[in-house]
Design goal:
The chain is an alpha/beta fold. It has helices spanning 19-28, 47-54, 70-76, 88-96, 102-109, 122-126, 128-139, 165-178, 216-227, 255-265, 310-316, 335-346, 386-401; strands at 5-10, 32-37, 80-86, 114-118, 143-144, 148-151, 157-161, 191-197, 201-204, 207-209, 231-237, 247-252, 271-274, 281-283, 304-306, 324-331, 350-355, 366-373, 378-385. The strands form 5 sheets. Strands 12-11-8-13-16-17-18-19 form an 8-stranded mixed beta sheet, with helices on both faces. Residues 187-399 form the DNA/pantothenate metabolism flavoprotein C-terminal domain.
Length: 402
């Protein structure tokens, strides 16, 4: 969606220089961007840079161009306000409704979706005051992206790193696509868990039993949930995809590792979406050395044992009252018949049934499915991008959570 009025707020953190890349992505996508920095942000990137990149005037004060009433008009005319980076100080001001400069006034007058991309040291992010401010903003419908984990200023490493501008842009694009209505952040205040990718069960140090799942559908589900305001935990099995902005990623390899990570995360989850392709079986034994091929000798038989059924387990033992559980069923024939049988067997609330085929399901950017409900509902999802399926799925989950 192009041609929107975007306000890019920039607060005073070292990550301010990365907002230049975010600005470029908005302008190259056809959006009109007004940059509103704080006074401290100009210590990192000057007003001339913002003005040249956006093609619009830049000011930090409410006293400039007073006849245009900028402290009111900028927020009123915006289709999206994104503050990147958002410092601990900016989050505190926004949560408490302070208005001592042009950016904080803009936040008070905006009636469009608002996205904050925090960046700060780990101790500042984890401080109870910051966490309460974040919770307040999310409760009001703002999207506060979870910061990334990595190298911070100096030699420090931890959670608080500014997410990659490309990932922030993708999240903002999804927010814009949903429009200005109140359902844009209908998952605000919710914690959701999503599994993605395919597990691998090792045979020996160089071989494994696995599947061809790329993780794209699970990642799309996680990214859309973050754009709709949820706190997202993504349990990722053997994927090569970049982390979605605002998502806590837990990396796993085997089905047993995935089970443990999912059970840990679901203790506080409002909804769980099991999109990962989890191996039904694993080798009974692991060869500590590579299994060699010997001429004239038949290879040894591989004995398999059954893996735990994670979907059935979390469906049967809901860790929170009202928790919604969603499963996936990739079928090659009689998709709906097999899907209904699986839904009854697993006892989940929703089951996404997709038939594996060319440019569908595994490894593809697109998908086509039918979402079956335990209440007897049947919702078709037409062929299209996996993000579209994710949006419709969260519509169904949000309705049940409500």
């Amino acid at each position: 969606m192009s041609g929107k009025n975007v306000v890019l707020g920039v607060s005073g953190g070292i990550a301010a220089y990365k907002a230049c890349e975010l600005l470029r992505r908005f302008t190259e996508s056809g959006h009109s961007v007004r940059v509103v920095p704080t006074e401290s942000a100009l210590h990192f990137v000057g007003a001339a840079t913002w003005s040249a990149l956006s093609g619009q005037p830049v000011s930090t004060e409410v006293w400039e161009s007073v006849h245009e009433v900028p402290h009111v008009r900028i927020g009123q005319q915006a289709d999206l306000v994104v503050v990147a980076p958002a410092t601990a100080d900016m989050l505190a001001k926004a949560a408490h409704g302070l208005a001592d400069d042009l950016l904080t006034n803009t936040l008070l007058t905006a009636r469009c979706p608002v996205v904050f991309a925090p960046a700060m040291h780990t101790e500042m992010w984890e401080h109870p005051a910051t966490q309460e401010n974040v919770a307040t903003l999310r409760r009001r419908g703002a999207v506060v992206i979870e910061p990334a984990v990595g190298r911070l200023t100096g030699v420090d490493t931890g959670k608080g790193r500014f997410p990659e501008p490309e990932a922030i842009f993708e999240l903002c694009r999804r927010v814009l696509d949903r429009g200005p209505d109140v359902t844009a952040t209908d998952l605000a205040g919710r914690h959701v868990v999503v599994s993605a990718g395919g597990t691998r069960e090792p045979l020996d140090p160089v071989r494994f039993l696995g599947n061809i799942s790329s993780g794209r559908q699970g990642y799309a589900i996680a990214a859309v949930a973050a754009a709709r305001g949820a706190k997202v935990t993504l349990v990722a099995a053997n994927t090569e995809l970049p982390d979605p902005a605002g998502v806590d990623v837990v990396r796993v390899g085997t089905a047993l590792e995935l089970r443990q990570a999912v059970l840990t995360a679901t203790a506080t989850a409002d909804a769980v979406v099991m999109a990962a392709a989890v191996a039904d079986f694993r080798p009974a034994t692991f060869a500590t050395q590579k299994i060699k091929k010997v001429d004239g000798v038949e290879p040894p038989a591989v004995e398999l044992v059954r893996n735990p059924d994670v979907l059935a387990e979390i469906s049967a033992e809901r860790q929170r009252p009202g928790q919604i559980v969603v499963g996936f069923a990739a079928e090659t024939n009689d998709a709906l018949v097999n899907g209904r049988a699986k839904l009854a067997r697993k006892k989940c609330d929703l089951l996404v049934v997709n038939e594996v085929g060319e440019d569908r399901a595994f490894g593809s950017a697109n998908n086509e499915a039918v979402v079956l409900g335990a209440d007897g509902s049947e919702t078709p999802v037409p062929y299209g991008p996996k993000a579209a399926l994710a949006d419709l799925l969260w519509d169904l989950v949000a309705a049940r959570l409500a």
